[in-house]
Amino acid sequence: MVKLNENYSKLPGSYLFAEVARRTAAFSAANPDADIIKLGIGDVTLPLPEACVAALKRAADEMADKATFMGYGPYEGYDFLREAIVANDYEPFGVKISPDELFVSDGAKSDCGNIGDIFSEDCTVAVCDPVYPVYIDANAMSGRAGDWDGEKWTNIVYMPCTPENGFFPALPERVPDLIYLCFPNNPTGMAATREQLQPWVDYANEHGSVILYDAAYRAYMTDPALPRSIYEIPGAEKCAIEFGSFSKTAGFTGTRCGWTVIPRALVRGGESLYDMWMRRQSTKFNGTAYVIQRAAEATYSPEGKAQIAKMIGYYMENARVIRSGLSAAGLEVYGGTDSPYIWFRAPHGAGSWEFFDRLLSEAGVVTTPGEGFGPSGEGFIRVTAFGDAGRTREAVERIKGIL
Ligand code: PLP
């Protein structure tokens, strides 16, 4: 009889967004006429930039011609895209990363989870709390999280991010091997400064830990002083792996493309982590589709850049509307200036799910309860700026109306 991976049976109930969907469907079934506005799941709503669609079509035509047809591509991605990412997302920020240190992926989510393949099952994992649930669940599946005690995983180092510490974690007493950091952060919407990140880089180098830096929301940073990449921090090339994504930058959530940087200088136990990841990818991954990589390349064309700037401007205007509207209603509001997420405290000490239910039933607005992102998220709600502008304004008015 086959034996199953028992770690899966330890995973608690339904995934956060499944529970949000379940409650929304139940409300909708009970109130078929209700006009529901969804500001919950962090998916984009605007179509792909025209420059990307044109590149996709051109690449599809190439695939239709024997002379230009492309079969299996390089495991680490085509040079044209690796070079474009480095030239546009690293060089302008003074980061010396070579295209040869970068793997094209099918999005940040897969690699954030799969990167665990190259580390021992005994590694201790630290995460910000609240956090994008994938980091914890992926490590729970491979046995690194210990047991679920109803609130937390016994082997995960939770690093609270609260208003008291400016939503930036303190260095933990128990030294973790793997440290997930995500800035601008999902769900709190807060970005990190150089001064905040430098001690983490120094700490990781001192203890031989590895930082797994998720920069999926970097395109939403508006403050020019904030670092776009962990590699802007001296020493990071010796301790950090960085994940990037076209999902939120260019509406690629359904198109799927991202990247992972593993500097050659990142060595642990005498092994190059780049070489290990290359070995892993060449065994378990056959590359991102050529047509998709061409579409991603087009995000860096002059037209692509202009279209993306417009798209991000649209979402950031939503963020401004949500931020100012909720603040004016007397709520304690965070994020939304360097990220597409707004994080606010439920009023009068209400619990996250309690206030989520109230927003759904009284305002017809779907949000995400902070508790679903970790224990320190209890009492908070996440709202996304990825919705339609008119509907977002209406949602804010409705929320103001019930407060
Ligand atoms: N990282 C964070 C922090 C996210 O919030 C998300 C998606 O919501 C992802 C990664 C997933 O990115 P991708 O679509 O590139 O897999």
UniProtKB/TrEMBL annotation:
The gene is dapL. It comes from the Bacteria. Substrate binds at residues 15, 42, 109, 132, 186, 286, 382. Residues 35-399 form the Aminotransferase class I/classII large domain. Involved in the synthesis of meso-diaminopimelate (m-DAP or DL-DAP), required for both lysine and peptidoglycan biosynthesis. Catalyzes the direct conversion of tetrahydrodipicolinate to LL-diaminopimelate. The modification N6-(pyridoxal phosphate)lysine is found at residue 248. This is LL-diaminopimelate aminotransferase. Pyridoxal 5'-phosphate binds at residues 72, 108-109, 132, 186, 217, 245-247, 256, 286. Its EC number is 2.6.1.83. It holds the Pfam family Aminotran_1_2. Keywords: Aminotransferase, Pyridoxal phosphate, Transferase. Signal peptide: none annotated. GO terms for molecular function: L,L-diaminopimelate aminotransferase activity; pyridoxal phosphate binding. One of its GO terms (biological process) is lysine biosynthetic process via diaminopimelate, diaminopimelate-aminotransferase pathway. It catalyses: (2S,6S)-2,6-diaminopimelate + 2-oxoglutarate = (S)-2,3,4,5-tetrahydrodipicolinate + L-glutamate + H2O + H(+). Homodimer.
